[in-house]
Here is the input.
Amino acid sequence: MTHWRLTGRVLWLALGIEPGAAAEESTSLPPVTVPLPPPEVPADSPTRRDPSGSITVIETREHRGEAKQTAELLASTPGVVMIDAGGLGQAKLLNIRGASTNGVLVFLDGIPLNGAGGGVDLARIPSAIVERFEVLRGAAGTKYGSGGLGGAINVLTHATRRGAEISAEATQGSFGTWLAQVAAAGSLGQGQGLVMLHGAHSSGDFSYPYNDKPELPGNPSVQRSRENNDATLGGGLVKYHHSLPRGWSLDAMGELSLESRGLAGTVENPTPDARQSSQRVSSTLRLNRSLDPGIEISGRGFYRRDHLSFHGGYFGSGLEEVDSAVGAEIGTTAAIGGWQQLSALVNVEYESLQQAASPNPSWFRGGLLFSDEILLFSGRLSAIPSVRFDRTGPFNGISPKLGALLTLPAGFELRGNVGSAYRAPSFLELYVAQGTLLPNPDLKPERSISADLTIGHRTSVSSASVGAFSSSYENLISYEYYPPLLAKAYNFNSAYVYGLEVEGELRPSSFLSALIGYTLLFSQNLRDDPRYYLKELPYRPRHKLYARVSAGPKIARAHAELNYQSSQFFNRTETLSIPARAFLNVGISSQVLSSPEVTASLEVKNALNVQTQDLDGYPLPGRAAYLTLRFAYDRPATKNEAQRHGDSHERQ
Here is the structure.
């Protein structure tokens, strides 16, 4: 896992002004103070938009050969909890710092993926297309708009490059699982291009313990096999980068994702014939220009279309919905006088939902962001005030935020934020009946007020940080009993969440690295009802620990990682709970050739074969093994290619 931090000292360096001994070179460590982001970080990444934020960057190349899904990679971040329906391709949701899954924004190369339901199923984002994840923890509404109560996730796909690179990877493993991908990238005409195809399948027929007579004390469990838990995924990615005259650059991306999966249901209420299929088409076109000194302007347009269909089980003869969105944004950043950086962004979006037997709602979204970064005390203190105005359909929202970053002696830094965010109700909550769930057009937006304070320290081979956070939530939306047999969405709930986050990383050499992340989370339901008042919120474990150690040269590199979660309730009265669990994953990889690269990897997940479940009765897979073979050929850019593409970065 690689982490980057951008500080206000960038402004001094952009103008050629040396801020003094506080300026240091960037390194691959947890969030720390460094003068410049790596060249491949785009201008609209969280590390550029939010210098004082708690941001973790996860590089997928460090997990090659480990058969990890998107949600598994993201769940290693402090403050992030995964909710898992069990098995490859099955639903994976995340909450951040206690906010609901609807309160986390997800972007694919800047394209908003939060659709009609508000939340994002991360199982539909294949890790094969991802180069890195950027996770912003804390109120993200100021930077990203309605929905960022707990944070935001930016999913960045593989970059184009000069020269030529061809790669292929294939994985075979437990439960009838296979994964495959092939990609080519390199110089194309006057620019650089990339094309990738990927696919995956799992039968999902793992065994799990089941108590068929729970009314009998001491009744032994029997082993059953999960049925209708298969999933098949596939898709492609196309990208192109072109440098234009007068400092302009053009980036285009197109992505296709296809999926079909069984919906197995809970252990107690299986659904052997319920199915889901989906198709997503997304594309974006971005223009960017960097001007000297310290001025940057950019514009982006995007399109996304999600087609979901359900049939069988509780869906009966079938249900289809198509969620479409098209939008654009224009932003600019300017360094002024060597001590201030001003940013402004305006965006518009049109979203619509189509269903055969329901209203077909649509609305416009619009947002206007102003941000400032003021440098004080020779750049050692950065103050970052910002405010965003949003209009989402009939709802208006204002999201202010104040951030600060202080560089201290001896490698220490202190950063803090306080801000507010809001989430407009989704199409489904407002207008669309979903089986026994009724909409409510009178819903109000959810709101949050958040604060955090983090102290960090770094050396040339290590870094560590400890941070405290708190959030209060109002007008939370939940489905409540609506006689005689239905449930309806209401604003009824308030909650308070607070806790600690700890991160540390050690890289004494290229042969050894260690990483640890810990979260302590307290949550309280503040609804004025004795059944729920001061009870813990469901699916918010008190303790969460992730630890990883990697050691060895490329010819024989081994790793082990531990994922621990304490017990958690899955109802609001604290009467039903999921037991604590600890998953141990181990693996080894061997790069047998370097040019071309040929690497073989073996990964064993849940090596101790822990039998447990998530949600309210969805069993999780036991021990599983995966064997991966990777081939890659990399040709550096020729002299002619380098001259043709000028001085642009090799990776775009």
Observations:
- The first strand starts at residue 54 and ends at 59.
- The CA atoms of residues 131 and 235 lie 16 Å apart.
- DSSP finds six helices and 36 strands in the chain.
- Helices lie at 9-14, 46-49, 70-74, 141-144, 427-431, 639-644.
